[in-house]
């Protein structure tokens, strides 16, 4: 009962009982588990019930919950440094790490969330190109910044909100919407507005309409159009960075972005974001240039410590970790497909490394936003309820990705598959 009591009480003090909408399990007719603790691949709710966690804080906990090295770095740093609002050496270490290890990032600016990273990257692109319009793709989510709340994925899609109240038309009049993996749609936009387009922003592997990878020739076209019209190409790697590969989604394409945004894994579970790119563009930022973007907490020492210890550990064990996650991912994917077939449940699974969506659809291939909309939400709701009851924590939406960590084991995957076997639609 405790989950229900806490959630009921929470609704009195926080809108919907939550600090971020998708956590409320709206439209699922369920009370979300109230989570008390986590270690490795397991989280525990207020009633003491354990779950194998496939949400992982929506991606960041790549090492699993409360990894010993990350906990140590947070504890040790906080003894002497909590916040100064002054330059520190640890933020230099983080910046160096990111610039040395990421492709196409010569300089970086740290911020506090993915939303901040993408909205700042857009401002920078506008300042650099001296143009106003931006192109985003229907179904892609880049955070809750006004200019992006049009045809956004993630919670906006799940909750059936067409966009958002409180977003004046003026804020989105410079946002153009194109169709993901649809060449005609982006060509058409550039033909009409090319001279005014400051930037195209894309999730190279979308995770917020379910997992869908952009096609290589589509990305090549984006690069060509951006070059032709002097627009910047921005990869939003908030979810895919260090997730689909150490090098992120950029490893999967021949195309280079001008700016890249990060968050989630790079903060090791603490609030963190970053955007980076070519020096010549980044130096348009104040205090060198005239694009103003600031943050009292940006580059916070404890956040840098958690992020850096996470990234260093991943780098040190890179081969082992990404192979392990690929192996577990394959086991999960193949298992789900086989069980669904036996049960006569139509599914299509899209997966890149430890990022995966099970689409409940008759379609054999899911590669556009239109495809995603064919999913059976009722079936998904029943499946969600069953899985949570069975101690398997998955995202409460058909349009999100589930994640794997290096702390997951074959046994964890078997538990997922056994739970799925017992699912009666
Ligand atoms: C999560 C996410 C964001 C927003 O990040 P927040 O830290 O929640 O503000 C932006 N873009 C993508 C691709 C994301 O997955």
TrEMBL record:
Its main location: cytoplasm. It is found in: Cytoplasm. It comes from Clostridium sartagoforme. This is Glutamate-1-semialdehyde 2,1-aminomutase. It comes from the Bacteria. PANTHER family: GLUTAMATE-1-SEMIALDEHYDE 2,1-AMINOMUTASE (PTHR43713), GLUTAMATE-1-SEMIALDEHYDE 2,1-AMINOMUTASE 1, CHLOROPLASTIC-RELATED (PTHR43713:SF3). The modification N6-(pyridoxal phosphate)lysine is found at residue 264. It catalyses: (S)-4-amino-5-oxopentanoate = 5-aminolevulinate. GO terms for molecular function: glutamate-1-semialdehyde 2,1-aminomutase activity; pyridoxal phosphate binding; transaminase activity. Pathway: Porphyrin-containing compound metabolism; protoporphyrin-IX biosynthesis; 5-aminolevulinate from L-glutamyl-tRNA(Glu): step 2/2. Belongs to the class-III pyridoxal-phosphate-dependent aminotransferase family. HemL subfamily. Its EC number is 5.4.3.8. CDD domains: OAT_like. Its cofactor is pyridoxal 5'-phosphate. The keyword Cytoplasm applies. InterPro entries: 4pyrrol_synth_GluAld_NH2Trfase, Aminotrans_3, Aminotrans_3_PPA_site, PyrdxlP-dep_Trfase, PyrdxlP-dep_Trfase_major, PyrdxlP-dep_Trfase_small. Homodimer. It holds the Pfam family Aminotran_3. Keywords: Cytoplasm, Isomerase, Porphyrin biosynthesis, Pyridoxal phosphate. One of its GO terms (biological process) is protoporphyrinogen IX biosynthetic process. One of its GO terms (cellular component) is cytoplasm.
